[in-house]
Design brief:
The complex is a heterodimer of chains A (234) and B (86). Chain A has 5 helices and 11 strands. Chain A is of the alpha/beta class and 234 residues long. Chain A has a 9-stranded mixed sheet, sandwiched between helices. In chain A, strands 5-8 form a two-stranded antiparallel ribbon. Chain B is 33% helix and 31% strand. The chains are: A alpha/beta (234), B alpha+beta (86).
Chain lengths: 234, 86
């Protein structure tokens, strides 16, 4: 059974949902603390959402120096799956494991609502169970979710197919697609090799049909089937 | 000796600064139409032990690059004066 470490930083608050989503997809989930030096032989790591270290200085800026980050860095370098959700995405950017940065939403408000996303790339450990081009609706909950990077980096992301999810209109004509003015409508990116993925939306918050939809469930289904090599893009 | 260091961190020029814009609009609403180019950032003050101002500045520059400022989105300026915060 795939073993998935869910990292708890002081101020993480989505870790039970992340564990439950992994378990619903058929994996074993366990917590790893921010001071732990080892990921206890985890096959994959999830950095959950929340407000690590109170978002002091910048979202994710302090968590990046937690002792556990060295183990996560080694895990990522070995090509193993790492998923950062929301604050986890912010931490991965601050740590330099993903390019770019997440800054204050353009309208300055904290946004908590569903968004519609287009799956741009499915050959990652966290998106293979979706169809390329598929539209999915899952929630966001963030104040600092506006993805920015220098133009040259954005061009490189497009050329390398490192954009995994984009915000699109789809929740009704009156609902704008891009909620926070992220550059190029980016909602999720991956590392050049695809094993490290960061996303602002929260798939773990909509991964159980009891909630009316389990549109996020397949992020975890993807992970649980990711030990098999991806041979085609369709 | 001890140096008092002030670091000013501002959003990188050219990047959308919604906080700066909001403050600018609020100032305009308060009848300060002469205001433009408002930017909101952070100020960080710290005491640093170093043998010279140049050494203190080099150390603080490294602190900025590694933690205090985000190299993707922020620029910073450093002021150094002799003596601590007292």
């Amino acid at each position: 059974m795939m073993r998935v470490a869910v990292v708890r930083f002081p101020g993480s608050n989505c870790e039970p949902e992340a564990c439950r989503a992994v378990e619903r997809a058929g994996g074993e989930a366990f917590y790893v603390g921010h001071r732990d030096a080892s990921l206890r032989d985890a096959d994959a790591v999830v950095l959950p959402g929340g407000f690590s270290y109170g978002d002091y200085l910048r979202s994710g800026a302090i968590a990046r120096f937690s002792p556990v980050m060295e183990a996560i860095r080694a895990h990522a370098a070995a090509g193993s799956p790492v998923l950062g959700i929301c604050n986890g995405f912010q931490i991965l950017c601050e740590a330099g494991l993903l390019p770019g940065a997440l800054v204050r939403n353009a309208e300055l408000s904290y946004l908590s609502r569903p968004v519609t996303l287009r799956v741009e790339r499915r050959d990652t450990p966290f998106s293979s169970a979706y169809r390329e081009g598929e539209l999915i609706t899952i929630p966001i909950g963030h104040g600092d979710g506006r993805y920015v990077a220098p133009e040259a980096v954005l061009d490189q992301l497009e050329a390398n197919r490192q954009i995994v999810l984009r915000y699109v209109a789809g929740g009704g004509a009156d609902v704008p697609g891009n909620p926070n003015a992220s550059l190029r409508d980016i909602a999720a990116v991956c590392s050049p090799s695809g094993n490290v993925v960061g996303m602002m939306p929260h798939p773990e918050r909509l991964a159980d049909p009891a909630l009316g939809s389990d549109a996020g469930h397949r992020v975890f289904v993807s992970l649980l089937s990711s030990t098999r090599p991806v041979t085609s893009n369709r | 000796m001890t140096w008092r260091v002030h670091v000013r961190i501002l959003p990188r020029t050219g990047l959308l600064d919604p906080q700066g814009q909001a403050v600018e609009h609020a100032l305009a609403a308060l009848a300060f139409p002469e205001v433009s180019n408002v930017h909101v950032g952070k100020a960080i003050a710290l005491d640093v032990a170093a043998s010279s101002a140049a050494e203190a500045e080099a150390r603080v520059r490294t602190m900025c690059d590694r933690l205090l400022a985000n190299p993707v989105t922020e620029d910073y300026e450093i002021d150094i004066e002799p003596g601590g915060a007292a």
